Structure prediction request, 264 residues.
Amino acid sequence: MSHTAHIPSHRKPRRSASKIALRAGVAGGVLSTLAVAGASGPAFAAEPVTETIEMPTITADLSTQVAQSADATQQAANSYALQAEQDLAVAKAAKQAKADQALAEKKAEAKKKAEAEAKRKAEEARASRSAERTTLSTASHVAAPASGSVASVIAFLKAQVGDAYVMGGTGPNSWDCSGLTQAAFAQAGVSLPRVSQDQSTAGTPVSLDNLQVGDLLYWGAAGSAYHVGVYIGNGQYLDAANPSKGVVIQDLSGYPASGAVRVL
Prediction:
């Protein structure tokens, strides 16, 4: 036996491989557990963050809804305002139309009264001329009336008897048929057209059986007459006949007229 056998050894006892492996396994398990815990810890901590991130999405949706609602409200307000403007415009137009209608009716009534007054005066004047013609018809054709529109026409015509006939003549000493009648009726303030065709339609047509002094006679068709003269009563007329006769008084029986118009 060694003399050192009884001295305790200062060497640490060797650990068996199995113990070392066991301890390593325990340590590894602890480390694994810590690693898992560390890894899982942040995940759990991130959950509130995830919920906070979702809030802006909810807030944005709500803002969009509010904005859409505001737009709809504004559109409705604009629509109501436009409708109000249209209603006001319609009301104004209706009021103006009513005023225009009233004015038109007032003007029409005034025109109607004026026409009635003019018609009354024309009838009075016609009645006066008819009475004058009746007086002339019953009198001798050589006795010219002293006054009146018809009288002035007849007096002018008779004053031209003996003047020459010249185509296109309008006086004072030579005439054609329509030039003479135009000048004669001008004495009474009546403006006749220049040519016989137009003069034949310048007044109211009358029957040859109902002639009155001062009626305008025409030969040919109305509107295309080729000659005119003036009835002076007692079946006679005065005209600028032709170049061979000049201005003369003639009997209707020798050269009957085609028609007559009353211009006075």
About this structure: Residues 30-46, 136-147 have pLDDT under 50 and may be disordered. The radius of gyration is 64 Å. Helices lie at 17-138, 149-159, 177-186, 196-199. The chain is about 55% helix and 10% strand.
